[in-house]
Amino acid sequence: MFGADSFGPPAWFPLIFGLVSLLVVAAFIFVIVVMVRNASAARRQGYDPVTMQTDIAGQFGNNLRNSAPKSAQERLAELDALRDSQAISAAEYDDARSRILRDL
After folding, report:
1. What is the pLDDT of residues 43-92, one digit of tens each?
2. What are the record keywords, sorted (predicted)?
3. Which of 15, 83, 84, 98 could form a disulfide with 93 if both were Cys (CB 3.0 to 4.6 A apart)?
4. Which pTM was predicted?
5. So what's the pLDDT on residue 39?
């Protein structure tokens, strides 16, 4: 019933182990290559790859703080331009104009 061949790994085990090991090593190499390429692309764009996420988040935050919302006069002028170019209908114009004036 139990022969000498029943103990130990099956004959195909070294092949499967080798293939899985090769896939793991290939995945590590792929990740390293991608990281190096991303870092060099960031340097070409003028960013420090180590602090790039923080730098971009800071720039985005500064842009949000420095951009003031449009005044009602600017919004009404844009709305008039849309109406004059016939991009919106008269009903859409009246609705948008009443919303702008309501927000004052």
Report:
1. 999 889 999 889 888 888 877 777 778 889 999 999 999 999 999 999 99
2. Membrane, Transmembrane, Transmembrane helix
3. 83
4. 0.49
5. 94
**Rounded-to-integer distance, Cα 78 and Cα 34, Å:** 45
The residue assigned the tokens 């764009």 is 45
Specify the amino acid at residue 98: S
Residue closest to 103 by CA, chosen among 67, 78, 70: 70
What does the chain look like in DSSP terms, one character per residue? ---GGGSS--TTHHHHHHHHHHHHHHHHHHHHHHHHHHHHHHHHTT--TTTHHHHHHHHHHHHHHH-PPPPHHHHHHHHHHHHHTTSS-HHHHHHHHHHHHHT-
